Amino acid sequence: MKKAWVILLLGLAAAVTAAAQSASGVNPNMKGPNVLDYVVNPNSIVYSKAFSEWDAEWQQWAYSIPVANHPLFDNADCSQGQSGKVWFLGGKFCNNNQSCSTTNVQRNCTVSSGKYLYFPVANGEDSALEENLVENPGNMDDQQIGFMRQFEDPWLVAPPIEYAFVDGVAVPNLMSYSVQSTVFGFTIPADNYLNVIYDMPNGFPAGTYYPAVDQGQYLMIAPLPPGHHVIHFGAKWTSGWALDITYFLKVTK
Predict the structure, then answer these.
(1) Which one, of 117, 104, 90, lies nearest residue 8 by Cα?
(2) pLDDT of res. 251
(3) What's 132's DSSP letter?
(4) What is the pLDDT, as a whole number, of residue 239?
(5) Element (H, E) at 6
(6) How many CB atoms are closer than 10 A to CB 62?
(7) Cβ 9 vs Cβ 241: under 8 Å
(8) Low-confidence residues of the chain, pLDDT below 50?
(9) pLDDT confidence of residue 12
(10) pTM here?
């Protein structure tokens, strides 16, 4: 049930630590324990919002962008749909007919100085819209917030193998970055990602929908110094699905 394995922002398979270090593109100017000072404590408030609220905003961002111009389908660069002081990064969206099991994604991303970066290492979402149209049509109980929360619990308490590196330095104890979103609504265009990942062209009409929930392990990176940086993260599920995501960042002055 659910397509979390399709849309999640995932990572690699075997030899996680060694593979991640070899692909991390270490920046010698940042390597060392001080790099982790840029990883924001998940209990923090950033621009008057808790992580649970940024989690919801990340999902609203991902829902709102047409597939033809969606950065997580690699149809646009990382600036697409971004605004404000917090930018959203992510993994790779795939459809039901496209295997992501051997996909390693590398992206170049230019970010102006002063921007926070927020992204899930692994997450899962559910919405009443999906339950109604695909997952459990006609079952009103499954469209309730409590049911959707219960379904998403495994992504909070029993995630897959995960890893994240900032400029070659591993972020420890990713489970401590577990976040449960606030309940949120979202707006999708006609060319929306739900049509693609469920392989249902025009199956999800454009509109605004409520409710939806999400949870997973999310990282917030404080504004990095101008220059070149690397954010590398991923995960592997027991189903065998795995992706490895690397952002080569250029932070401008």
Answers:
(1) 90
(2) 97
(3) I
(4) 72
(5) helix 4-7
(6) 23
(7) no
(8) 1-26, 28
(9) 29
(10) 0.87
Reading the block at residue 128, the tokens are: 């009443």
Domain ranges of the chain: 4-252
DSSP, res 98: S
* C-alpha span between 12 and 19 (Å, rounded): 8
Residue 138's pLDDT is: 82
Amino acid at 51: F
The three-class DSSP label of residue 57 is: helix
Q: What amino acid is encoded at 41 in this protein? A: N
* Tokens (6 digits) for 136: 């459990």
Encoding tokens for residue 132?
């109604």
User: How many Cα neighbours within 13 Å face the side chain of 213?
Assistant: 21
| 212, β-bridge pairs | 127, 184
Please tell me the distance from the alpha carbon of residue 207 to that of residue 221, in angstroms, as a whole number. Answer: 32
What is the tens place of the pLDDT at every residue in 78-134?
999 999 999 999 999 876 655 555 578 999 999 999 999 999 998 889 999 999 999
Q: Which amino acid is at 32?
A: G
Token couple for 40: 């924001």
User: What one-character-per-residue DSSP string does 96-147 give?
Assistant: TTS--TTEEEEEEEEEETT-EEEEEEEEEEEEHHHIIIIISTT-GGGGSHHH
To which H or E segment does residue 196 belong? helix 193-197
pLDDT at 185 (0 to 100): 98
